[in-house]
Design a protein that fits this description.
Layout lengths: L1 H56 L1 H5 L15 E3 L2 E9 L5 E3 L2 E2 L4 E2 L5 H4 L7 H13 L16 H5 L37 E2 L3 E3 L9 E2 L5 H7 L5 H13 L12 E7 L18 H16 L17 E9 L3 H7 L3 E2 L5 E3 L2 E2 L5 H4 L7 H12 L19 H7 L3 E2 L4 E10 L5 E9 L6 E8 L1
Parallel strand pairs: 5-6, 8-11, 13-14
Antiparallel strand pairs: 1-2, 2-3, 2-15, 4-15, 7-12, 9-10, 15-16, 16-17
Bound molecules: calcium ion (2 copies).
Length: about 450
């Protein structure tokens, strides 16, 4: 009986021991899997840290649009870290080529700031939806693209298309037709819905390519202007101030409208002629512009060419228009990157002519498909990139008038990028993705959004 009891006990103990062994094996497996998942997540995070370092330390290099930089793909792709890698993936271009590096938020249209007429030109965004978006903005600011889901006619599919896990890559289930969720067209391309065109983050720091604060045309005094910009002389600066005293600058292209003023004694005696730095416009084309502008002045009730116009009183002096343009196109192009109409240091919602796609450019006022194509092909043929928005004046089909309606909406650089980093273990197909919105518009660096995607 005792023997039987001992055998019984031993059997039970064996079963318990085996159970425990199995459980502990299972525990080790789960721990290992969790450990691997944690590792891939940290490798993905390492990629974002790398992107931040790029944006902070290589500020000058990165002011050039990443699309145009001579990118060594190995620099961003399968970068070794621990026993795995991270990859900064920037999406697929129109030719089906994968791109690596950061994504420029200014390559998209800002849904928080852009007027409905422009929004309505976005493929897949109707006029009524544009009106709904404008109405939504009046109630509350749109802080995330997901806020658009509050609108009746916006679904997850409208917003994110086939990319339902929002990781920016074409996962197998997003390219298999109706075999698995989500439904897709199995064409090998990722349709990202409206999210391909829209952002809430695009912003720039109002500095020139050499990282100096831009001169605020609606605020700066004449001395401040001449001190900061070597290509603007005293008379041109006085003329800018005189123009602004009558009418605030609505775009930097209005510099082309500014007429040179000269100072006169209050009795009407000329006080000063043009300074030696100033040269008159020389070409026929520019003379025509001058005449056209003079006639515009007449239609606005302004002065005739050379006739004294009411100017600002400066002690015993006043100014009068000379009827001569202060900036011809070449002079404007020299100064365009150094000035802004913004009163603040940060401007939101501009579209980067160096990174935006043809489709995005074609949404802007006055730009049709043909002109958008020429803007892109011109920059593709460049060694580096458009240095300032004024370079668009050289693109075939871009007129001064068209440019004037456009230039307050565009930029040639950006300060907000998305890093989409994928961490993976060596030899493993599974990955973790981190998407972060990185903003260097202010002195302090900001991470505006952070998403860890399974
Ligand atoms: Ca996806
Ligand atoms: Ca597809």
């Amino acid at each position: 009986m005792a023997l039987l009891f001992v055998l019984w006990l031993m059997t039970i103990l064996c079963v318990v021991a085996m159970e425990m062994k199995f459980a502990s094996h299972l525990h080790m497996q789960v721990t290992a899997a969790l450990g691997q998942e944690t590792k891939t997540l940290f490798y993905a995070r390492a990629g974002v840290e790398r992107a931040i370092a790029d944006m902070v330390l290589e500020k000058n290099a990165i002011t050039m649009p990443l699309e145009q930089r001579e990118i060594d793909e190995a620099d961003y792709r399968d970068v070794p870290v621990g026993d795995g890698t991270y990859t900064l993936y920037a999406g697929m271009d129109v030719d089906g080529q994968h791109r690596y590096g950061l994504r420029d938020e200014c390559a998209k249209i800002n849904v928080s700031t852009t007027d409905p007429a422009v929004l309505a030109k976005i493929p897949g965004l109707s006029e009524s939806l544009a009106a709904d978006i404008a109405a939504l903005r009046q109630h509350e600011p749109i802080q995330d693209l997901g806020d658009l889901l509050k609108l009746e006619n916006v679904t997850l599919f409208t917003l994110y298309g086939e990319d339902q896990n929002r990781n920016g890559i074409l996962d197998p289930n997003e390219d298999d037709g109706d075999r698995s969720w989500p439904s897709d067209n199995a064409d090998g391309h990722l349709d990202s819905g409206l999210s391909a065109y829209l952002t809430v983050w695009s912003a720039i720091h109002e500095v020139s390519l050499d990282n100096k604060a831009r001169i605020k045309l609606n605020k700066a005094g004449a001395d401040e202007i001449t001190k900061a910009i070597k290509d603007i002389n005293q008379q041109q600066a006085d003329s800018i101030v005189a123009y602004r005293d009558k009418k605030k600058f609505g775009s930097i292209a209005e510099l082309l409208d500014v007429e040179l003023v000269e100072k006169v004694e209050q009795k009407g005696q000329p006080a000063r002629k043009g300074s030696p730095k100033q040269s008159k416009p020389e070409t026929d084309k520019e003379d025509k512009n001058k005449e056209q502008n003079a006639s515009e002045d007449l239609s606005r009730g302004g002065s005739k060419k050379g006739e004294a116009a009411p100017g600002k009183n400066q002690g015993n002096q006043t100014t009068r228009s000379t009827g001569v343009k202060a900036f011809d196109t070449a002079a404007f192009k020299r100064v365009a990157d150094f000035v802004t109409i913004a009163d603040e240091d940060v401007t939101r919602g501009l579209v980067n002519i160096n990174t935006a796609s043809e489709e995005v450019l074609a949404c802007l006022p006055g730009i049709d498909e043909g002109l958008a194509r020429r803007i892109v092909s011109e920059r593709d043929g460049m060694k580096d990139h458009y240095k300032s928005v004024a370079d668009l004046l050289d693109v075939n089909g871009m007129t001064t008038e068209l440019f004037k309606g456009l230039c307050m909406r565009i930029t040639a650089r950006s300060d907000v990028f998305e890093a989409r980093s994928f961490g993976a273990l060596e030899g493993s197909k599974s990955y973790r993705c981190v998407s972060a919105i990185l903003d260097r518009t202010e002195d302090e660096f900001h991470i505006r959004a952070w998403k860890e995607i399974e």
